[in-house]
């Protein structure tokens, strides 16, 4: 990206070194002192949905010079033990930022955890919320793929699936012995987006939440990012020059003025083949649920019905 992208960030890094350096002069002429970056509570949150591209979205937004990101998933609002540590602890997990920059954090389980909307409102009732979603059956298969590959240290934030579950085929987990859909199976339950979204909309006005189409973000990130820049009130800076398609990975990778970077191998995993009849059955099951989601967000995402 043009040098502007790195400028704010480089400045932030350089400035943080000056601030933390023990030999830094104590007193300087106030008028000459450059602006100081400080840690701020996030003004925007990526609240979920798990496996819909939350990491990709955060990394893509970080291409913008006015965005700073929390590096890991902080899980402040969804884990009682973290929430009990208070807002100062949460702030301490945030990156340095200059005035006017937007700090963004993502923890995908915020979306599905009942206490979170109220807790977020208590922090900042005008926080901007980004909800990235994918076609629900694809998301469920992605979730299954992650749980199956689990037991690896790559996803320590999520509980391991019950013993034996990860080894079973998706078809047997998603459909019960009597042929009905297993809504108790977490990857299916989390794809019932409306059942979690309504809680958020009881707490926040609709305009404060932007729904990002994760399937479109994969196919063509720039138009989605433009919408988000507008929503966040920042200039359109992220463009086609910031992406290149990596044929081996099968996904877009990111580029700025200093580096090219693809997401880790745990992002963009190959999914197992799922019986097409099961996919169709699941898609039909989701039709009415998707409809309820469309009604809540006032937008039809056009997900396939079989
Ligand atoms: N550019 C790019 N590169 C790689 N992967 C991409 C990209 N854009 C979106 N995705 C999709 O992100 C999916 C992982 O979603 P999350 O980051 O939300 O997962 S997690 O909940 O944090 O574990 C991941 O899901 P899987 O394909 O199942 O691995 C990807 O499909």
TrEMBL record:
Record-linked SUPFAM superfamilies: P-loop containing nucleoside triphosphate hydrolases (SSF52540)
Organism lineage string: Eukaryota, Metazoa, Ecdysozoa, Arthropoda, Hexapoda
Domain of life of the source: Eukaryota
Sulfotransferase domain ranges (all copies): 42-289
Organism for this UniProt entry: Plutella xylostella (Diamondback moth)
Keywords, ordered alphabetically: Glycoprotein, Transferase
InterPro entries on file: NST/OST, P-loop_NTPase, Sulfotransferase_dom
Keyword Transmembrane: no
Protein name: Sulfotransferase domain-containing protein
UniProt xrefs under PANTHER family: GH20068P (PTHR10605:SF65), HEPARAN SULFATE SULFOTRANSFERASE (PTHR10605)
Region named Disordered: 1-35
Biased composition (Basic residues): 24-35
Keyword Translocase attributed: no
């Amino acid at each position: 990206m043009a040098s502007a992208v790195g400028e704010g960030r480089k400045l932030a890094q350089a400035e943080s070194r000056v601030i933390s350096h023990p030999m830094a002069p104590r007193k300087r002429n106030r008028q000459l002192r450059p602006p100081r970056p400080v840690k701020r509570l996030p003004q925007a949150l990526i609240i979920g949905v798990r496996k819909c591209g939350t990491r990709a979205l955060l990394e893509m937004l970080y291409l913008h010079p006015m965005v700073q990101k929390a590096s890991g998933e902080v899980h402040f609002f969804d884990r009682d033990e973290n929430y009990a540590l208070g807002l100062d602890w949460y702030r301490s997990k945030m990156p340095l930022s200059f005035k006017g920059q937007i700090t963004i954090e993502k923890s995908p389980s915020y979306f599905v955890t009942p206490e979170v909307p109220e807790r977020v409102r208590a922090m900042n009732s005008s926080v901007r919320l980004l909800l990235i979603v994918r076609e629900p059956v694809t998301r469920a298969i992605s979730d299954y793929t992650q749980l199956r590959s689990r037991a690896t240290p790559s996803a320590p934030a999520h509980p391991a699936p019950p013993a034996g579950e990860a080894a079973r085929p998706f078809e047997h987990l998603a459909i019960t012995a009597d042929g009905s859909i297993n809504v108790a199976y977490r990857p299916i339950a989390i794809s019932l987006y409306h059942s979690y979204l309504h809680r958020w909309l009881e707490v926040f006005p609709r305009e404060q939440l932007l729904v990002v189409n994760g399937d479109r973000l994969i196919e063509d990130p720039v138009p989605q990012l433009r919408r988000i820049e507008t929503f966040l009130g920042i200039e359109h800076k992220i463009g086609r020059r910031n992406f290149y398609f990596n044929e081996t990975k099968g996904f877009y990778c990111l580029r700025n003025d200093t580096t090219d970077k693809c997401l880790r191998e745990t992002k963009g995993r190959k999914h197992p083949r799922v019986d097409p009849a099961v996919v169709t059955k699941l898609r039909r099951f989701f039709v009415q649920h998707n409809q309820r989601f469309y009604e809540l967000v006032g937008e039809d995402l056009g997900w396939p019905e079989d």
